[in-house]
Structure prediction request, 197 residues.
Amino acid sequence: MVNPDSEDLSKSKKTIEPSDQEKKEEIQKIEQFMEETAKEEESLDALKTKTQNYLDQLLRLQAEFANYRKRVEKEKMEALKFGRVIMIERMITILDVMEGALKHSQNATDINSLIKGFEIVVQEFFRFLKSEGAQPLKTLGEHFDPHLHEALEQIETNKEEENNIILEEIQKGYTLNGQLIRPAKVKVAKIRIKETK
Prediction:
């Protein structure tokens, strides 16, 4: 006699146990998942390597830039130092001319040789200023320009063509490489306003 409970038990075992086909499908799914996971890990490893390479490159560039800045700063300081040396050498040359003029004036008996000595000193100074990029402003006979000239006095004139013309330079003005560093102080002609009766 067959026990009905045992029959039910065998039926339930059959339903619980997967078939061979189901087992194969599960194994294939697991293998596919493992392959995908391995590919993802490879991709992740490649990204990690790439990221590390970028980080290394960034660190190298930062170090190179820091070294570049230090080198540029050092070169700038050297250029300033060298520029000072050149300027001092030129000033010494002017000082030599001044000392020569002073020595010559002590032995000179006439005023003309004294004047000549000072003219040489002034010319040497102008040469120095020009070599540094400084230029005196043209003033006499020029139209007054408030951006370049400072009018210390206005002189009345009856001539219309002289209006706003610089008649006298009191102090020279200078530009350095085209930029005004000191305006010229001048006397300017102004047309006399005719009084109406």
User: Anything to note?
Assistant: The chain has a mean pLDDT of 84.
